[in-house]
């Protein structure tokens, strides 16, 4: 599991040193119920070493445990069961890479502090609506000690910090790269990447038409074009002028890959935006008036987003306020607001330990990805007018009230940042694979026996 940081806009949160996002859900760091393949459900054989990474062993039981986790995920997603031999080889390679990376992290001075492990454990408990004691009881019932559970959390934190230091911190996207990408997308996008929905008016020209008749039909099509460009209702123009078979649908041909449109139509509309009308197009069938209804580039980031406007109250646990007390206090705030005994904004001004307190906790309109995952996931589950239960992030405990949602088109600067983010994600994937191969290449790896 990876933990990716998202850009923060909460004023107080930005003052805190960034820590890796915590695991989402109880299961990942613990042992899953071993269900699924008979090969994995079979009685565990005597454990043995299947590989050695530098001086540390990888055991058969470790491979079996990871296989059980993977098979459980396949079952939950209703995916067909993979070939067990191939899965075992893949799991073994992943364990080797993980062990090599952890060794490198420790050798280069990275550590996971007890406070960070505590925070991860508390986050998992809260996200599963458990207290810490109940979480630990469940971990033990599932066959893992609390010490083992916390050790896996420490490993996850170490791996994320290592990747942040050695991979993510080195990946940059220049303004020039963003500009070049946008220019490329505005020129001739790949037909398979572009999806179009065009509305059209066909003024048919019979094969036997005389030049005079062709000119009369051109004039008719030109009148339709001029009225369309002047803003007339296109569906009404279709009913008046078109001789195509899609009159009842307002002339719309439907959203489809550009490769499934005639090349003449694609060329005529490739420089147009949504709502624009192309110059008159002549084909063997006649004259066409084309209007762009939808235009999507599947290789480009979306230029329209759903924005959320929320308020929140942040309490930061410390010597005078435990995490449990903060949760209880925020739960009481929620009850008071729902009972109309208090106003959320007033409570935020009085109690919130965030820079937004002066604004009644108002966070303004936020695009997707602006908040840390723990906060954003909870906010996204709310409908306008709803208030969350207390939400634990790495920065404290929040109470979130969602006020509104809206569809918004990104402005030019936001579009550039969306492109930058997309290009960075592509670069990160390539950089991570090269980095992981390099770490693997530095390690001494001895394959002993195939896992059973």
Task: Sum up the structure in keywords.
452 residues; Chitinase A, domain 3; extended; 11 strands; 14 helices; four-stranded antiparallel sheet; Triger factor/SurA peptide-binding fold; 44% helix; disordered N terminus; single chain; alpha+beta
Overview of this protein structure:
The protein has 452 residues and is α+β, with helices and mostly antiparallel strands. The chain folds into three domains: 13-173 and 432-447, Orthogonal Bundle (Triger factor/SurA peptide-binding fold), CATH 1.10.4030; 190-297, Chitinase A, domain 3 (Roll); 304-409, Chitinase A, domain 3. The chain is 44% helix and 16% strand. The protein has helices at residues 38-41, 60-76, 84-107, 114-127, 132-141, 146-166, 175-186, 211-229, 234-241, 263-269, 323-338, 344-351, 373-380, 412-442, and strands at residues 49-53, 56-59, 194-204, 256-257, 281-283, 286-297, 304-315, 362-366, 391-393, 396-409, 445-447. The strands form three sheets. It has a four-stranded antiparallel β-sheet. Helix 3 (84-107) crosses helix 6 and helix 4 (114-127) crosses helix 6. The longest helix is centred in the C-terminal third of the chain and has 31 residues, at 412-442.
Residue share in helices? 40-55%
The largest sheet has its strands arranged as 4-3-6-5
Principal-axes shape call: extended
Order of helices and strands: HEEHHHHHHEHHEHEEEHHEHEEHE
CATH architecture of the largest domain: Orthogonal Bundle
Low-confidence stretches: 1-43
Estimated share of beta-strand residues: 15-25%
CATH superfamily of the largest domain: Porin chaperone SurA, peptide-binding domain
* Number of spatially distinct domains: 3
Counting helices, strands and paired strands, the structural category is alpha+beta
């Amino acid at each position: 599991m990876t933990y990716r940081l998202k850009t923060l806009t909460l004023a107080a949160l930005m003052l805190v040193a960034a820590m890796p996002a915590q695991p989402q859900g109880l299961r990942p760091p613990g042992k899953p119920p071993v269900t699924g393949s008979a090969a994995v459900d079979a009685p565990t054989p005597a454990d043995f070493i299947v590989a050695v990474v530098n001086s540390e062993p990888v055991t058969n039981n470790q491979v079996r445990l990871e296989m059980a986790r993977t098979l459980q995920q396949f079952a939950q997603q209703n995916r067909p069961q993979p070939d067990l031999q191939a899965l075992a080889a893949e799991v073994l390679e992943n364990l080797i890479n993980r062990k090599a990376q952890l060794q490198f992290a420790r050798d280069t001075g990275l550590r996971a502090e007890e406070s960070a492990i505590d925070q991860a454990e508390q986050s998992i408990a809260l996200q599963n609506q458990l207290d810490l004691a109940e979480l630990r009881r469940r971990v033990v019932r599932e066959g893992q000690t609390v010490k083992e559970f916390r050790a896996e959390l420490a490993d996850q934190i170490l791996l994320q910090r290592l990747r942040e230091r050695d991979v993510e911190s080195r990946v940059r996207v220049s303004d020039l790269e963003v500009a070049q990408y946008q220019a490329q997308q505005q020129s001739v996008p790949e037909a398979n990447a572009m999806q179009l929905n065009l509305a059209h008016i066909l003024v048919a020209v019979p094969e036997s038409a005389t030049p005079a008749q062709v000119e009369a039909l051109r004039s008719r099509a030109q009148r339709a074009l001029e009225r369309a460009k002047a803003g007339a209702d296109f569906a009404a123009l279709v009913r008046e002028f078109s001789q195509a078979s899609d009159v009842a649908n307002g002339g719309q041909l439907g959203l489809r890959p550009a490769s499934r449109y005639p090349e003449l139509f694609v060329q005529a509309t490739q420089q147009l935006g949504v709502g624009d009308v192309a110059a008159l197009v002549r084909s063997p069938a006649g004259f066409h008036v084309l209007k762009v209804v939808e235009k999507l580039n599947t290789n480009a980031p979306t230029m329209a987003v759903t924005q959320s406007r929320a308020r929140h109250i942040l309490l930061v646990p410390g010597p005078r306020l435990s995490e449990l007390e903060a949760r209880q206090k925020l739960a009481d705030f929620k009850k008071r607001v729902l009972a109309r005994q208090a106003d959320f904004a007033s409570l935020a001004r009085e109690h919130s330990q965030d820079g937004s307190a002066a604004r009644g906790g108002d966070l303004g309109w936020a695009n997707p990805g602006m908040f840390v995952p723990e906060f954003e996931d909870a906010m996204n589950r709310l409908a306008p007018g709803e208030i969350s239960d207390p939400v634990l992030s790495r920065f404290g405990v929040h109470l979130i009230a969602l006020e509104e949602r809206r569809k918004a088109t990104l402005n030019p600067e936001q579009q550039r940042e969306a492109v930058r983010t997309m290009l960075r994600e592509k670069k990160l994937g390539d950089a991570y694979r090269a980095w992981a191969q390099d770490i693997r290449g530095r390690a001494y790896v001895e394959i002993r026996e195939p896992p059973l």
